[in-house]
Structures are given as structure tokens and as C-alpha cells.
Amino acid sequence: MVTLEDVARQAGVSLATASRVLNGSTRQVGADLRARVERAADELGYRANMAAQTLARGASNVIGIVVHDLTDPYFAALADGAMRAAAGEGLLVMVGTTHRDPEQEIAYVATMNAQRVRAVLLAGSRVSDPEVTGRLRRELDRYRASGGRVACVGQDLLGVDTVAPANYEGGAALARSLAGLGHIRFAVLAGPPHLMTARDRCAGFVDAVEELGLPGPRIVHGPFDRDGGYTAAAETGDATCVFAVNDVMAVGALASYRDRGVRVPDDVSVAGFDDIATLRDHVPALTTVRLPLADMGSRALELALASGETPTVDHVQGEVVLRESVRDVR
Amino acid sequence: MVTLEDVARQAGVSLATASRVLNGSTRQVGADLRARVERAADELGYRANMAAQTLARGASNVIGIVVHDLTDPYFAALADGAMRAAAGEGLLVMVGTTHRDPEQEIAYVATMNAQRVRAVLLAGSRVSDPEVTGRLRRELDRYRASGGRVACVGQDLLGVDTVAPANYEGGAALARSLAGLGHIRFAVLAGPPHLMTARDRCAGFVDAVEELGLPGPRIVHGPFDRDGGYTAAAETGDATCVFAVNDVMAVGALASYRDRGVRVPDDVSVAGFDDIATLRDHVPALTTVRLPLADMGSRALELALASGETPTVDHVQGEVVLRESVRDVR
DNA sequence: CAAGACTGGGCAACCGCTTTCCGGGGAGGT
DNA sequence: ACCTCCCCGGAAAGCGGTTGCCCAGTCTTG
Fold this sequence. Notes:
Chains A, B: Residues 2-57 form the HTH lacI-type domain. The structure is a homodimer. By secondary structure, chain A is an alpha/beta fold. The first copy, chain A, folds into three domains: 4-48, no CATH class; 60-165 and 294-316, Rossmann fold; 167-291, 3-Layer(aba) Sandwich (Rossmann fold). Helix content of chain A is 45%, strand content 16%. Chain A is built from twelve helices and twelve strands. At the A-B interface, helix 4, helix 5, strand 2, helix 6 and helix 7 of A face helix 4, helix 5, strand 2, helix 6 and helix 7 of B.
């Protein structure tokens, strides 16, 4: 393993000079020495040891991103946005996948803290359990106490910079659009009761429906993924319009109806949430609420890096996109 | 920032003892001191500084994964498999996204080397340019010279442990299946000419078609993504069966045909490659060649960590999955 | 009961790099 | 010709841990 000392010796200069040449410094180094050092480094195949550099500088150039599930396009898009922004700042990215286990999320914050990453991004829904949230907050505080920066994409529950998708408002806007098409009997594939994102989207939808004087939607809980949507879709009763709280569940629901010979949108209309890019070619095209996921990811990184005294909360509005999976029944 | 020294002082023990208690060691520490140290660490909110630990131990617990594009479900699945395996080994993951730029890939290897990661996984197709491959190899050699381990998912071109999907054979098997259904005039949406994965799949398909004595398929080049498939599908002429070299392109092709009123599979049959999970509910269901992506990712990590003197090459066979996007024309 | 084998605690060297501080030499000013 | 200032090179003190080694005390064991 080639060290800076090897390079310095080979070039016949001091450690200090070699360091200044190779790893940047405010100080100048004479042209001849500089060339000698560079040549030596090249010949020896020197690569700076970042661990040593981080230790000496007291600051790393790594950020951490903690996501629930990278194979879920929602998180992939979010992470991609954040990673692009990070690359733009010359930062490396360490990714932790919790597979939806809140304990894992806490553990990852501790780990990222140990890594002394410059910032941590928490992507993904909070859960409603205040005990878990409390422990997460404590771990975050511990991290921030030693100079770490944190941002979160999701609910503003952690007292940190947050990019908060307007889940409630998005659900409500969608409900109003669907009611505007003449739908009256709704059902919601509501996901898990403890997941805030699912809850907020569902609540916005239900409240809006009720404000319009329509009968309250039938709520069907279940997992937050494709299979959850598939299963839950079997219990939507006589609803003419079904809202799945995310696109992946909506696609599951569509598959379920298809398998059971229920036509969409003729027999039942289906809408989702997120507007996942990979799903845009689905047939029938999915009505949904579009969220600018990549922007949200990069925005979260910006917030984290810039974070000042009082946390900033950015509310991101979704945009209802009507497509052929819902029918106009007026 | 709380250091081990702070903990040791607060607990009234030496640095060595505190280290042995908190960060593991073969040496025993008496129960009372151990308790004192643990309490002090907890009170102070101590987190070991991994940079220091890495430096002192001379080995980090981080691995690097370099992918082309995380929002492409192919890479997401691969990365997820590798990350699960890494988590099982107690390793952290640093992810680099090249956005399909080979120079970026080389740069990331250098960076991962600087980070002294335990292993680097290179996921994704090689390109046919030998100059670029040569530079990548040199960078990898430099990394391995200092004890780094490397594995690759893709073509066995780097002289490292490799998980090699049988792209050529998969393309050929698919061709034989499709010909078996009575198809005669084929077209291939072949992706970019320089991308080995695209090339191999295409070559396998073409060779198999010709071996069967059928007319050579029409080859349409274009980008490796959804839009590439969409555009290329406009030029498939009178082919009755179209092979897109990956699922994402195939979905683009399906969209193109739909937009132009060409019915699939009635007017034209379409097949892809990879069997992307997110796309399994597509309508019509896509005929494809299934690759066990998550397993390939975790396998690559295993290979890298275990890597011995001579590189191992694992060939992974794909499995043809016939679904409704192709028609039996016999 | 003495001697050797363990146990467990602490000192200090070291991991590889950054950066402060010091000093020598050349340029510019008077 | 002398002084000052600036420029640039090097010595050395950290950064926060790990670990080899020494040593005192306790446990066997003949």
C-alpha cells in the first residue's frame, strides 16, 4: 500500500510538500518540486487514504442516505436525485436500506454518525409510533450534537430540515378530481395503519370526499406494496372508484381486477399516488398524483448541507394527473 | 465531538481499556471497569470514529458498488441483492452512479480505492472500446495491488471475479422459443452498438435465428432505455416478432405500437430481456428472459469477498418466460 | 511455600495525512 | 548595502483510534 511518505521519499521532498502538491492546499509549491512529486505519485500508483485524510481534516466528503427499499422506484428516484446533487458537490454517497424496519433506520443513523458523514438524508415515511420516533430523534440529536447535518423526506416529525410531500392535500385534490368525474362510492387501499404517508394520503382523500357530502369511502388496510394492493383490491365492495395510496399498490390492484375479470375503468376506476416513471406505460394508464421525486431528493440534500439554526420545511405539492384508469361517469 | 479519550477519562480508565471495552478485542476487561466504561460512553453519547478505526486497523468495513443508473430497475435489483449480502456481513455500502459514462466508472474505482473499501462491485455492461476497458483495468489493478478485491456483474473482460449473465445464450434460447411459435420475420431493437450486453443478446438471437435457416433479423440500434425502445420500434418494418434487448426498451416498444394502433400480440409479437419485477404487471404481459438479479448481486459480493488467486467466473443462465406479448402463429 | 502461568490494566508506538510554525533565501524598497 | 517582506520547504504536533509489550497481582501446582 503506497503512502504519501513513499511518494515524498521517492520524490526527495518532505511529507508536507508532497501533501500540498497532491491533496490540495492554499500554499504554493515550486514548479520543479511539484512535477517531481506528481511523477513519483504516478509511478508508484499513489491514492490518498481517505480515512487518514478524514481523520486529519476532521471532515469527510461522504453523505449518508437511508431508504426503505431501493427496489421500490419511489426510493430509487429519490435517491437518484440526491445522488446527482451529491456528485455535483463532489460528495460520495453511502446508502443504507432498512427494508422498512424502523429499528434499522435508527441503527443506520448511529452507523452514519460513526462514519462521521457530512450529512444524513432520511427518505421515507415516518411511522406513527412515538416511542420509535423518539428514539430516532435521540439518535439524530446525538449525531447533530457532533456537527452532523440531517434532512428528511417525509413527515416533519423529527425537528430537522424536511422536504414534505403534501400527502394530505394530494389525497384531497385527487378525491375532488375524481368526484368531479361523477364518482360517488369510493374505496381506499390504505396501506398499513401506522405508516404516516399512507395515513395522510388516505385521510386527505377521505376528508375531501366527506366534505363534498359523499358517503365515506370504504377503507381497506394492507401492506404498502404491489401484493398489498393486489390483496386489498378484493375487498373494495361496490365502490366505483378506488384510490390506492401509492402507484405500486395501484398496479397490484389493477392486476387483481384483471385476474378477476373486473374491467378498469369500465367497471371500476383506479387511481394511485407518486407517478412512478417506470409505470407510466402501464395499461390502462394510471391516474395518479405526481410528485417530483428526483427534485425532492436533491432538494433534501441542499437543505441538509445548508442547514442553519431553525429547520426549514419545504412543502412539495403533488399534481393530479388524470389518465385512462378512471372513467368519467357523469 | 466525543472521543474515546473523553470516555476513558470520565470512566477513570486508560484509553486502551476503553477501546477494548467499546470496540471489541480479544482481551478481557474486568466486569466493574467494563460497566464503568459502558456507562460513560452512554452518558457522553460516544460513537467510535470509523475513520480513525479504519486507519488504525488498516481495514474498513465498507464496500463500494458502482452502477450505471439506480433508477433502472435492473441495477436497483442487482444493488439490492448485493446490499442485502453486505448487510449480512456487517458491511456498509458506498454507491456510485455513473449514469452510463465509462469515464465515471473509472473515476469511481479510483475514489473507492482512496476510500480503501474492502471490495468493489462493478455492475453493468462493459463497453467494447478496448482503450477505455484498458484504463479501467489499470485502475482496478492499482486498487488490487493494494489489497482491494473486485467483482463484476457483466462481461468477463476485466480479469476479475465475474458473475456473467448468459446474454448470448439467453438471446439464442429466446429466438428458438419464438421461432418455435412459428415466427419467421424478426427484428431486434439492439440498443447501442458499443454496449456488450446489448451486443451479446442481439448476437445470440441473430445467430440462433440464422442457424434455424430463417432470414436474418432486421437490426435497429438506439439508446438502451425506454425511449430508445419507443423510437426504434418505429422501424421494425414487416417483422412479426420483435426482440428488445431489455425489458425497459420492450415496454417502450409496446407503448410505441399502442400509440400507432399496432396491436400486440395480434399484429406483432414483442419480447424483452431481464424480467424486471416492476414490469410484471404490464399489459400485455411481457415475454422475456428471466435473470435472477438479486442473487447475481449477492453472488458478486460473495465472490469479491472470497476472491482468491485466479478469478472465478459464474455463468448465470436466463430462463425464457413466454407470456402474452407474443403470439403463437403456427 | 516458592515458582511459574495467567489475568487484566496501562503506556506508548503507530496508522497516513494535514497544518501550524519556523527558518532560509531572494526580491524589492530606500 | 541594509532591512523588510514574501515565498516556499521542512519539522513536528496532532487527528482518534488499536495493539504490542511490560508489569503487578492472583491462581495454580508441585
